[in-house]
Amino acid sequence: MHHNPLTAVPFVPQGIEAGLDGAGLIQVRRVESPRGRVGRTVYKLLHFRPQRVVKLDERGSFFWSSIDGERDLLEISASLATRFGVEPKLARESVMLFTKALMLKRLIHLKLPIHEATKS
Predict the structure, then answer these.
(1) How far apart are the first and last CA of the chain?
(2) pLDDT value of position 117
(3) Other C-beta atoms lying within 10 Å of the C-beta of residue 26
(4) pLDDT at 2 exceeding the cut of 90
(5) Which residues contact 77 (CB under 8 A, 6 or more apart)?
(6) What is the pTM of this model?
(7) What is the DSSP letter of 86?
(8) Which 8-state DSSP code applies to residue 69?
(9) Per-residue pLDDT for 10 more than 50?
């Protein structure tokens, strides 16, 4: 059985912070965890907190702001199409690209819908 990937619901996992930059665009930050005992010791001694910061453009900021853990990617793409006056197909493609990029950076996760056939 194939499911539409746009029915997945994005959510922000714990440990991710977001804020606005001077231009009103969103910057997302994830603090990296050290790997291994030696890494943890070095980070602790140096008071080092490695982090990954991702600066989003206007559409990316809108996408991020739309993530509420309830709306699926299809709903978010419809909102994006309306907000920016783009074709629905382009909005869906943009949402899929944003989702992939943010997932690869471990900044968002997806909840898959439970379908009636799998509920029993």
Answers:
(1) 16
(2) 44
(3) 19
(4) no
(5) 6, 88, 91, 92, 94, 95
(6) 0.77
(7) -
(8) S
(9) yes
State which residues form the domain around 66. 5-119
Contact present, 31 and 43 (Cβ < 8 Å): no
Q: What is the CATH number of the domain that holds 97?
A: 1.10.10.1150
Which secondary-structure segment (H or E) carries 17?
Answer: strand 16-20
In 3D, which of 99, 22, 90 has the Cα closest to residue 60?
99
- Look up residue 5 and give its DSSP letter: G
Copy the structure tokens of residue 64: 């991020």
Please list, residue by residue across 83-115, b when 16 or more beta carbons sit within 10 angstroms of its beta carbon and e when fewer do: eeebeeeebbebbeebbeebeeeebbeeeeeee
Scan for tokens 């709306």, then name that residue.
71
Domain count, the chain: 1
